[in-house]
TrEMBL record:
Reactions catalysed according to its record: Hydrolysis of terminal, non-reducing alpha-D-galactose residues in alpha-D-galactosides, including galactose oligosaccharides, galactomannans and galactolipids
CDD domains reported for this sequence: GH36
Originating species: Streptomyces phaeofaciens
Protein name: Alpha-galactosidase
UniProt GO MF annotations: alpha-galactosidase activity
Amino acid sequence: MPPISHSPDTALWLLTTPHTSYALRIDDTGAPCHLAWGARLTLAEAEALVTPAGRPASSFEGRPPVGEELPVDGGTRYGPPSLQVRHADGSRGFAWQPLGHQVLRPAPGGHELVLRFRDSLCPLYVSLHYLVRDDTDVIERRTVLRNAGDEPLELLRADSAAWTLPPLHDYRLSHVTGQWSAESQLRRDRLPYGETVLTSRRGVTSHHANPWVMLDAGDATEDHGQVWSAALAWSGSWRLTVQRTPDGRSGVTAGVGHEGTCVPLAPGEEFTTPAFAGLYAADGFGAASRAWHAYTRTHVMPHARETAPVLYNSWEATGFDVDEASQKALAERAAALGVELYVVDDGWFGARRSDRAGLGDWTPAPERFPAGLGPLADAVHRLGMRFGIWVEPEMVNPDSDLYRAHPDWVLHVPGRRRTELRNQLVLNFARDDVADWAHDWLTRLVADHGIDFLKWDMNRAFGEAGWPGRHDGNDRLWTRYVTNLYDVIDRLRADHPPLRIETCSGGGGRVDLGILARTDQAWVSDNTDAVDRLAIQHGFGQIYPPRAMSAWVTDVPHQLTGHSVPLRFRFHSAMSGLLGIGGDLTRWSEEELAEGAALVAEYKRVRHLVQRGDLYRLTEPLGDEPTVVQYLAPDAGELLVLAWRRGPRHGSPRIPVRLRGLTPGARYRDAGTGVVHHATHLTAYGLSLDLPAGDWTSTALHLVRLGPGE
C-alpha cells in the first residue's frame, strides 16, 4: 500500500505507516477534517468512512469542537482554536480556501503530504505538512504560515497540529508533572470533560510538565490496549490543550507560546511551527514507548547509533573549588575506574568562585588554569578519556565583565526591576548579536582547548521578558530565542563535527524532541538519588529513550534525600541509562574503587542493550514488588534484566517476573552463572529473581541466546 493515497472524488487522503493509517479530507466548506487514526485501512475502507455532513445537535451548536485538522478561530467554532489570527484592523478570523496539494520525498524512506490553503479574505497562506516514514508509525505534522499581504498580522495562537481520537467509552490521560529535582512524575488520570491545559510559561520546556500526552480508553496496560500519543518538538514556552466533549469525543492541540503572547507575522514573513508528532499503538503503553524510542534514536537524535561513553563529572567532588592540579588527580582516579569521558563542571572560568559572579566571562581563570584548559585536556586525553566542560551560555551574573559592558543584552523591561534567580539574569538570545557572541566564544573555546563534550546548562526561567527597541519584541522573543538557540548549537556542531553535547536545565528543565534533535543526551534531574531516580527515569522513558538519559552514581548519604543505599544499587540505577559517575573519588575506599571498576566493566559489556535495545517495563517502580526493567536486543539474541528492591515485608510473596519478546523455543544462558533457561519458562512462567537479602538490594542478569548446537 503506498504511504500516501488520494481519492479526488471524496477529497480524501490516506497516510499509511507500517502498522497504522491516518485519514483526512477536505469538507464542503474547504476545511481539512479528520476521518480516522488507528489500524490500517485500504483507500476504499477509508472512503467508506465519509458520510454526509450531519445536522448540529441543536440550534445552539455550530461546528463540532473536535474533528478538524487545525481548528481555527472563525465562524461558529467554540472549541480551543489551533490557529487564531488578529488582522491589522483588529479583526479576527480565518476561513479555509483550498489551493491544492503536493506529495514530496524529503529523504529516503520519507513521504510528505502538503495541503495548501489561504484565508478567503486576507492573503494569509497556510500549509499543513504530514510526514510519514517507512520504518516508523510516528507521523510528524507541522504548519507553515506566510503573510503575503502588506499589513502585519498577529498569530494569537499558532499550534503545530490538532489530533483527533475516535469516540471511546471513556478517556484516560497520561502525562508527567514535577518540579526541580522531582521531574517526570508519571500521572494517569481519567480525562475530565472540558479542556485540560498543560503548559510552560517559563521560556523553557520546564521541570513542571513536558509537552507530550498519551490517551487511552482507561483499559490499556503495558502490554495491551490501544494508546494514542503525541509529542511537541519545542524547547521554549508551550501550550497543549486536551479536550473532552459532551458528545463523547477527545482531541489535542499544541504549539508554541502561552496565553498573553503572540507570534508576530510581518509582511512577507513566514513562520514554521515545530513538529507535533503523533503515534497510534495497538499493544499498550510499552509498545508506544518502544516506538517513540526507536523513532527518536533513528530520526531525531543526531548520533544515537554511537555508543555513549562512561562519564565522570567533577561537580560533587569539587564544587566551585576547581583548579588544574585537583582536576588532574580526579582524572587519574576516574580513568582507573574505566571512565571514558571526563567533564569539568562549574567554576573553571572568570571570577566564578560561587554562583554570585562570573557567568558571561568565558575564559579560564588564570590563577586556576595558568595556561588555559589545554594542559588539563591534554592530560585527560593521555589517560585515554575524552574531555568535556560545563557551560551556561544563555546566562549572566550582574557581577560580570559581560554585564557591565552590555547591560542591555538581558531580557528586561525599561524602568522595571531586573529580578534575579540564582543570582543571574537571562541573556536575550532572540537578539542576533547575542547569539553571534555566544557562537563566537563557544567555537573558539572548543577549538582552542581540545574540548570533546559540552554540558550545556540553563539554570533559570525567563523574567521581565522584554526586548526594548523592537515594537514587537516582547512577543517575538519567545520564539526567536529558541530558534536562535537552535541555530547557535547547529552552527557549533557544524564547526566541530566530533563535538558532543548534553542538554541540561537545572536538571530536566529542557528535555523535548526539539533539543534532542541537536544534542546527544539529556541530564534528567539534579536529583541523583538512586531510589528517587527509579521513578524519575520511569516517567522520562515513557517517550524518551534510555540512549538519551544521563544517570550518575553519587555519594551517600545523598545530599537531597539522606538515603544511604549500597554502591551496587546506585550503579544498577544509573546503568539503566547512560552511566555516569559523580561522586568524590578521593573519598572512595579501595574496596569501593575496585567494586566501581568491576561495575563499570559490567556496564560496558551490556550497554549496547541499554542504549540500542527495546525497553520493557516489567513492574511499576517502588512498589511492594521489585522494580524490574528489561532491555532486549532487536534480534532477541540477548537481553539485560535490572531489578531493585527496597526490602521485602516478612511473608510477602515472591512472584516470578515474566520476560518479554524472547525467541520462542530458544534457550538463553546467564552470562554470569552459566545457568541455561528456556524461553518458554522465562516468558510464560517467569524468572525468579535472585535478589540478596536486606534493604535496597539489586541485581543485573545478562542472558544470551544459545545457538542450535549449543
